Amino acid sequence: MSVREEIIAQAMNLPQMPAPVVRVMNYLSRPDADLNELAKLIEYDPGLTVNVLRMANSSFFGGGVQVSTVRDALFRLGTRRVVQLVIASGVAPNARSAVVGYGLEEGELLRQAIAVGVAAELLAAELDLRAPDHTFTSGLLCNIGKKVLGGFLEVDAGPILAMAAREHVPFEQAEREVLGIDHAELGAELLSRWSLPPSIVECVRWHLDPCSAPGSDQALDLVHVGFVLATMAGIGQGLDGLNYMVCQKSFERLNVTPLAMARTMEKLLEALAEIEEILSSV
Amino acid sequence: MLKRIVVGISDMKISARASEVLVTHSLGSCLGLAAWDAGARVGGLIHCLLPKATGPDVKNPNMYVNVGVPAMIRKMLSKGCTKEGLVFRAAGCARMLGIQNQFDTGSQNLAMLEALFAKNGVKLAAKDVGGSIPRTMYLCMDTGQVTITSQGKEWLL
Questions:
Q1: What is the ipTM of this complex?
Q2: What domains can you pick out in chain A, each with its CATH number?
Q3: B13: helix, coil or strand?
Q4: Choice among A145-149, B17-21, B63-67, B91-95 with the minimum mean pLDDT
Q5: What is the rounded (10 degree) CA torsion for B97, B103, B108, B110?
Q6: Average of per-residue pLDDT across B97-101
Q7: Is B112 helix (H, G, I), strand (E, B) or coil?
Q8: Which domains does chain B have, with CATH numbers?
């Protein structure tokens, strides 16, 4: 078995999404999905209920008059946010622990995940764009491959760091050369096995290199720039640091201005604190 | 055992306790600036995200080099430091690969600091900036020593 195959096999051992999450996701994929039915489904799960209410009352996701029932929360948030929240609830427990291989302390992987999703959405708002529905979730999931690859890097981060430094190549390229796979591809592989929508899987696959993506997707550009902003801000930094290539074309396609970028970074820190508090208790 | 006082992103701390060490983690393109006055034995550490405020309403001055750094210096002067006694060391201001100048916050943070210091006749005693490595910066209140750690290595600044 090659190192690449071994890594993919290990990725498949990661726990599946929790059952209530899978149930809600399956229901939401039905064309006749109804918010009243969805509310009942969520109310069976006390954890999801609490999270939905907290999210609906947060200023980033909802805001305004306090809601106290799942039904009211769903009508306020809409199905788009509910999908995001439900997936976030499934992923957060996996992303919370330390990832020693990447030098990420406890909570840092989750923090970076939230930061990329939040930055992508804040950037869209700053640029007067309506972020495609899968933007936040793709940002949130983009570094999930690190969770698995971290297990290998823990043993042998040296050659990857050395190659990146010696040959001035981006970190994920060094991962591919040493391990046969990078964390973006591995993350996409994992999410595909979890049956997440292809739009999310593709965003995660290409978030470090949008120009190589087979198709164009505004969410991918938003997630890439969101990743750049979170990385520059130093959020969730590990051994890999800032050693990633910026795709200028993504900036151009979105018409990002230096002012929009600075404003997004300003707002990111504030929003992050709120969302982090909600998701870290999931 | 020294007590660690953590300086977050867009945060600033000042200490006069020999038992403390000020530390800021995750310096990416952000600027970390340590100031130490050996006479007053007072130190300060700031972690600035951006070179300058994007609007007139500044909620958190520590977020910006152009307002945060002068605010830290003023506060240190009020704690008995002198302009002549303060020694400054900078770290961070890293950059991602292939980033264009107009989006290179790291270079802009450093340029803003250098312009601010040049205008006021202040010299930077040392700097460890640029590249694409993440940095953690420590200022030890016992000695005024500044240490950088990154990717498992440690060095004095």
A1: 0.95
A2: 3-280 (1.10.3210.10)
A3: strand
A4: A145-149
A5: -20
A6: 92
A7: helix
A8: 3-156 (3.30.1330.200)
Interface touch B29/A237, C-beta < 8 Å:
no
Per DSSP, which regions of chain B are E strands?
Answer: 3-6, 11-15, 20-27, 31-37, 42-48, 86-92, 124-129, 135-140, 146-150, 153-156
Q: To the nearest whole angstrom, how far is the Cα of A256 from the nearest Cα of chain B?
A: 9
pLDDT at B24: 97
pLDDT for residue B134: 94
> Does B27 contact A at CB distance below 8 Å?
yes
Q: Which residues of A touch B106 (CB under 8 A)?
A: 232
| Cβ within 8 Å, pair A258-B103 | yes
- Residue B139 phi/psi, 5° resolution? -120, 115
For chain A, the first-to-last Cα distance in angstroms comes to 37
For residue A280, the model assigns a pLDDT of 66
Interacting residues of A37 by C-beta distance below 8 A, sequence separation 6+: A27
**Range scoring the smallest mean pLDDT among A8-17, B47-56, B114-123, B146-155:** A8-17
Q: Tell me, what's the pLDDT at A203?
A: 95
Question: By 3-state DSSP, what share of chain B in percent is helix, strand and coil, each rounded to 5?
Answer: 25, 40, 40
The side-by-side arrangement of strands in the sheet containing B124-129 is B11-15, B42-48, B31-37, B86-92, B124-129
The string of pLDDT tens digits covering residues B16-37 is 999 999 999 989 999 999 999 9
Say how far apart CA A169 and CA A119 lie, in whole Å: 25
Query: Which residue stretches of chain A have pLDDT < 70?
Result: 15, 152-155, 280-282
Residue B156 sits at the chain A interface (C-beta within 8 Å):
no
C-alpha–C-alpha distance, residues A68 and A36, integer Å: 15
Among B151, B153, B154, pick the best mutation site for testing chain A contact (most A Cβ within 10 A): B151
Nearest chain B alpha carbon to A108:
B26
Q: Does B9 touch chain A (CB under 8 A)?
A: yes
